[in-house]
Write a structure and sequence with these properties.
Length: 136
């Protein structure tokens, strides 16, 4: 758990039950992020072949990136032709997807309808890697 990425503080809770709940939710969020990073590794600046190479390499020797990771870093493109992202930029790209609730101004009854933005190819690929449906 030690590292620079654990951002649990500041804890602004004062009761005995809320502090452990805060820590639990932070750890749960990190666990979800870890799974997302593993699933999205093919379109991130991460070595998506790490689990395969980890089984074959010497556990004492320094880890070396796979050829696929070197290619992604050099070309800044995935094998599917997508631009390679960091986790933060990919989340920003996914945040552009929206569900809008609209209402006709001329409708006196105020009937509403929902409209979901069409996913980009990158968003559709990310949802596919996460095992989520990309419904319209």
């Amino acid at each position: 758990m030690k590292g620079i990425d654990i951002l649990v503080r500041p804890i602004r809770h004062r009761t005995e039950n809320r502090v452990p709940a805060h820590i639990f939710l932070c750890m749960l969020a990190y666990y979800v992020e870890w799974h997302m990073r593993r699933a999205l590794a093919p379109i991130l600046f991460e070595d998506h072949e790490l689990s395969v190479t980890r089984q074959r390499r010497d556990p004492v020797a320094a880890a070396k990136p796979s050829e696929a990771a070197k290619t992604k870093k050099r070309t800044r493109r995935t094998k599917d032709g997508f631009a390679v992202h960091s986790f933060a930029t990919l989340l920003s790209e996914l945040a552009c997807r929206a569900r809008n609730t609209c209402r006709m101004v001329s409708d006196a009854a105020g009937q509403t309808f929902r409209q979901i933005t069409k996913p980009t190819k990158l968003q559709a690929k990310a949802f596919e890697l996460l095992g989520l449906t990309c419904s319209q």
